[in-house]
From TrEMBL:
The gene coding this protein: lpxD
Organism name: Winogradskyella vincentii
Summary of subunit composition and partner proteins: Homotrimer.
Protein name: UDP-3-O-acylglucosamine N-acyltransferase
Database matches in Pfam families: GMPPB_C (PF25087), Hexapep (PF00132), LpxD (PF04613)
Active site per the UniProt annotation: H241 (proton acceptor)
Protein's pathway: Bacterial outer membrane biogenesis; LPS lipid A biosynthesis
Keywords assigned: Acyltransferase, Lipid A biosynthesis, Lipid biosynthesis, Lipid metabolism, Repeat, Transferase
InterPro entries per UniProt: GMPPB_C, Hexapep, LpxD, Trimer_LpxA-like_sf, UDP_GlcNAc_AcTrfase_non-rep
EC number(s) recorded for this UniProt protein: 2.3.1.191
The UniProt record lists the keyword Acyltransferase: yes
């Protein structure tokens, strides 16, 4: 799909400096721009590239004045980075704007689809499923019985949503994600064997939740595993049964959260963090990558290490730890001197 500089300026409420009819069909970095692409300049360190870029259109801040001749058409806006982000969102909406039902696919007779839905080929929509308006189910996705997916949510190829789960509005579930798998519940018997504890709860994703590729969120044993509004989960994360994650919390890849733990609002959790079960993590907590959390955490704490210490204590301890061989040698030398004096 092609857009002219004039059309793009209209979307961004910007001013065209150059050829208003020049067309673009792709986006590019400014240093990699070529004919037919659109780019932007926001960071001053990339300014030299604007004089060599082959991009047909470049979005710049309104106060930008070229010092050399340009071959690219400019669109001047108040905030070049923000405008380019807006354009990316617009482009993504167009790219993902599919509707209708592709074949072969299976949709139960009891399922209810809202307006302008899309169901891709080889997808499965189970009994009593409710899809809101503009929901997109991409090819080879699975939506189990009694699932509700609300307006404007997207389920990408290969994602699986087990029965009874509820997905809010404007959610994104990426490929390979599994929502509602059984929690890890087993009880030992007198023979030392393990019997499965039925997991009869569900998973609830509130509005504006993003779930990364390959992430698994287990259903509750009883009740619900709850991911609150605005939570963003990266790829390959494990969220166990009955966990609750507060709104606007973000968690990076390969983190694992054990059962029944409650995580507060506006937390930032780095990659490969391990969190034990049945604890509470407060609001506005920051946890550095590869930390191990084995205790309750108060609001506003910043943690690092395994087991995790407060960020300041960890850094102080690390200074001593990396000098440990030298410290031990000094102690041994002192002991020898003391022994010699005796």
């Amino acid at each position: 799909m092609k857009f002219t500089a004039e059309q793009i300026a209209g979307i961004l409420e910007g001013e065209v400096v150059g050829n208003p009819t020049v067309e673009v069909s792709q986006l590019a970095k400014i240093e990699e721009g070529k004919e037919g692409t659109l780019t932007f300049l926001a960071n001053p360190k990339y300014k030299p590239f604007i004089y060599s870029t082959k991009a047909s259109i470049t979005i710049v801040n309104a106060d930008f004045e070229p010092e050399e001749e340009l071959s690219t058409t400019l669109i001047k806006v108040d905030d070049a980075y923000g405008a380019f982000t807006k354009l990316l969102e617009y482009y993504n909406q167009i790219k993902l704007n599919k509707s209708g039902v592709e074949q072969p696919s299976y949709i139960s007779d009891s399922a209810m689809l809202g307006e302008n839905c899309y169901v891709g080929a080889f997808s499965y929509i189970g009994d009593n499923v409710k899809l809101g308006d503009n929901v997109k189910i991409y090819p080879s996705a699975y939506v189990g019985d009694n699932v509700t997916i609300n307006d404007n949510s997207i389920v990408f190829s290969g994602a699986k949503i087990y029965s009874e789960c509820i997905i809010g509005k404007n959610c994104v579930i990426n490929s390979g994600a599994i929502i509602g798998a059984d929690g890890f519940g087993f009880a030992p018997n007198e023979k030392g064997e393990y019997s499965k504890v039925p997991q009869i709860g569900n998973v609830i994703l509130e509005d504006f939740v993003d779930i990364g590729a390959g992430t698994t969120i287990d259903r509750a044993t009883l009740g619900s595993t709850i991911i609150r509004r605005g939570v963003k989960l990266d790829n390959q994360i494990q969220i166990a049964h009955n966990v609750e994650i507060g709104k606007n919390t973000v968690i990076a890849a390969q983190t694992g959260v054990a059962g029944s733990t409650k995580i507060g609002e506006n937390c930032q959790i780095g990659g490969q963090v391990g969190i034990v079960g049945h604890i509470t993590i407060g609001n506005n907590v920051k946890i550095q990558a590869q930390s191990g959390i084995g205790r309750h955490v108060k609001d506003n704490e910043v943690l690092q290490g395994s087991p995790a210490l407060t960020y300041g204590d960890y850094n102080k301890s690390y200074v001593y730890f990396k000098n440990l061989p030298k410290i031990v040698k000094n102690i041994n030398d002192l002991e020898k001197k003391v022994d010699g004096n005796n």
